Amino acid sequence: WDETHFGKMGSYYINRTFFFDVHPPLGKMLIGLAGYLSGYDGTFPFQKPGDRYEQHNYVGMRGVRLCRLFCAFLGSCLVPFAYLTVLELSKSLPAALLTAFILIFDTGCITLSQYILLDPILMFFLMAAVLSMVKCNSCADRPFSASWWFWLSLTGVNLAGAMGVKFVGLFVVLLVGLNTIYDLWDLLGNLSLSLVMFGKHLLARILCLIVLPLALYTAVFAVHFTVLNKSGPGDGFFSSAFQSQLIGNNLHNVSIPE
Asked: Which pLDDT score, from 0 to 100, does residue 63 have?
């Protein structure tokens, strides 16, 4: 059922048809982009679960053949992410390998990754955010180095990605936030660190973990409203003034008093 739901939304993006959904737009935009790049024309109706795809090129979105495209590829990335995260935390190769093998042979992970769903996209950004956070923590002995800035910024990018797919991504924001508070508290208690240097640490985290994710999250919605410029099933959820901007809507280009 969910594949029917989100596959249809991918088609909406390809056809630039406006719709409304409870989830943020990033995951569905990526599904639509993957379908578009792989040759899918957005014409499959996705009316009910179990419909045959027949001649429609769904491989790019679903990824069940060839190179395990998109959703399957993102799902496969969870294995190295988990391996690297556990290896960084435990410094134990057997523990990291065990974690990777558990995910490789997990039926639920394999099943979720082979359909047109938001879950593999969400899990990709969640685990990438945790990996980036752990890598940034490992650079604590060389703050403001190139690697430190890279992992800190990448953490912010992945936080925006997680929030942009589903609001449940806020839980990884909470995790990173608690880790950052602990880190800053530890720095504040370091008597060898000047207040000026502590202020630089604080400013760096505000820029990379608050400003950057919010800017990217807002940019996702800007792209969403720019792409979906044609009238569709989501028109009625918005004001008449907004509907007048949608091509094909009855109110298109109508002058509406404020």
From this structure: 35
Query: Taking the chain, what is the end-to-end CA distance rounded to the nearest angstrom?
Result: 41
Residue with tokens 């879950």: 119
Q: pTM, whole model, 2 decimals?
A: 0.89
Q: Which residue carries 């429609």 as its tokens?
A: 56
SS3 for 60-112 is: HHHCCCCCCCCHHHHHHHHHHHHHHHHHHHHCCHHHHHHHHHHHHCCHHHHHH
Which 8-state DSSP code applies to residue 246? S
The four Cα atoms 101, 105, 108, 114 give a dihedral, to 10 degrees, of 110
Question: Is residue 255 situated within a structural domain?
Answer: no
- What pLDDT sits at residue 208? 97
Q: Is residue 154 part of a domain?
A: yes
Q: Which of 185, 182, 173 is nearest to 210 (CA)?
A: 173
- At 110, list the tokens: 């394999």
Listed as ranges, residues in the chain with pLDDT below 70 are 45, 53-68, 256-258
Distance CA 21, CA 19 (A): 7
Do 162 and 173 form a contact (C-beta atoms < 8 A)?
A: yes
Does residue 18 belong to any structural domain of this protein?
yes
Residue 243 located in a structural domain: no
Range of the domain at 188: 2-237
Residue closest to 112 by CA, chosen among 140, 153, 71, 155: 71
For helices 71-90 and 119-138, angle between their N-to-C axes, nearest 10 degrees: 30
Give the total number of structural domains in the chain.
1
